Amino acid sequence: MKKRFLSLIVCLVLVITSLPGCSKNAEETGKSTEGTIGTPEAAGGAAGEQKQEQVNYRTLYSSEVQTLNYLVTSTTNDFAVGANVIDTLVEYDRYGNIQPSLAESWTISDDGTVYTFKLREGQKWYDCNGTEVADVTAEDFVSSMKYILTSEYESSTAQNLFGIIKNAEEYYNGTMSADDPETEAVEGVPIDFSEVGVKALDTYTVEYTLENPVPYFLSSLTYVCYMPAYGPKLEELGSNFGAATDASTMLYCGAYILSEFWPQEKRVYTKNTNNWDADNVYITTIEQTYNAEASTLSPTMVERGEVDYASISSDILDEWLNDPAKSQMVSKGRMQVDYSYYFCFNFDPQFDAEYEPENWKVAVNNENFRQAMMAALDRKKAISVSEPETPDMLLQNTITPNTFVSLDGKDFTAFGDLASIMARDSFNTNQALEYKAKAIKELTAKGCTFPIKVLMSYNPTSTDWASECVVIEQQMEGVLGTDFIDIIVEAGPSQNFLSEVRRSGKYAFMKCNWGADYQDPDTWTEPFRKEGNSYNFMSVAIDEKTASADTVSTYYDLVAAAKEQTTDMNARYEAYAKAEAYLIEHALVVPYSVDTLDYCVTKLNTFEGQYAPFGVSNYRYKGMKLQDTPISMEAFEANYEAWKANVE
Length: 648
Description:
Helices cover 28% and strands 17% of the residues. The protein is α+β, with helices and mostly antiparallel strands. The protein is globular.
């Protein structure tokens, strides 16, 4: 899943761009009000009955989405919209247990390759006015997958289906245009979509056929690439489906309907009272207002009762905690293990000449240089910028977060060589200087010049990221010396940061992150894979036959061997642990933390919402109730203990 720098679930910034879409009521559009979301009938009662009590949740947001099309995006800021307005076949309850959703039931073949789902009848597609359009049927799952696997739509999640759904990759490759440079590498004759492993057996039965047994397949169904879409709408709009210009460019079948959209002004999510599980949707309206200074203004507005959520950044945290009244409003965000943060070395620098990309390329392909950087980074000090009280709680020595997945009570991070990595702290000044000495000797022989410029970019809209970068700059230069490295901290654009910086390779060393798409250690290998790597571009080392080529190739071989283990789960975990340990031991990436424990003011009990450390569950408002007053720190701890008792 993919991805953005998260805060916590209660501070989701679901955003939409461009032209106005649906308005507040049908009268403003001139459309009939029959059967729409504002009528007594739609609220679950007959005409003349009292409507359901309105519960309005208000927040600010400062960053726009690039698309509403959940079938093509892999960015959390984008697909969080789909999470709230599109239901999936299965979902997770507040304790992390899998539950039926659009599918009432399912069966799995004896060989584990065929999954058959019986859909819940009577579920509907609605437009942004809440007007019923059509039934949700099995064909909607077929249509959405065909769309994703049509290369012209450039879905960034298509590769999640490759090697999983039978003939998915073959069909995708067959749809490439003659102008596509990758077409030359595609062998064979294009296949018909009927050969792809997704079928509508009848109106309410959908079947998936897999290439091989996939032990985590059910959990992957909560990710965006398995969401349904209404086929006629896809055919009508093509690449404009879900365009971030108008809420009418998509249809809705989830807990909420995007009923109002004014780009860079506000958007409104309205409860879908006809949804199969509407009784468990307690917030009737989510109203989010755009303001470029949302992070600065929200604390003041939440104190005045004008919004219901505000993140309390580290620069004002002491003020709030030391104020008798304000301190009772502050609580922590829920610890999330669905996202992992780590520092990437960019193997394919595309930044400006002033930052000496060619010199950086020589340096980054030297393992002793990477090891020196890794050993010189005091991660606890950096984490303390956003979590000054308990940085150890967030610190991660592995890419796969501790407690993400276990087997027979044994956490994945305790398997194989990961166990010793978990027990250490990579920060070691003596080792850093030893690696530095070796790197200087080797890099000098390669013609590298010193100090090596290290461009470190950050998103200026992300709370505390700038301060964190400054701390890292001072701390690492203090260990390694400014004769060896020159860390250059630079703000990236506030809009489209991922596409403009990380995916474009315009950084040298930067904090990145990845969100799990399914419940298996394989999901944490996705950002580093050779195909479509837009994180650290380490596959370029192979293509250009650099000094790191063999190291990178070995990692890919280890991952390939792990993927082949589909029945012996112990062997599978051991193999993935070996691959991840190799990645870290050779300093191809530097593990950092799980998602930050944000301090915030909120009227939502996050432990009431759906929970799973993968997929879209944590981005949903379904199940949450709006409290009359902000949740205190004591209430947060009590809520957590109550939740934990039920999980255990």
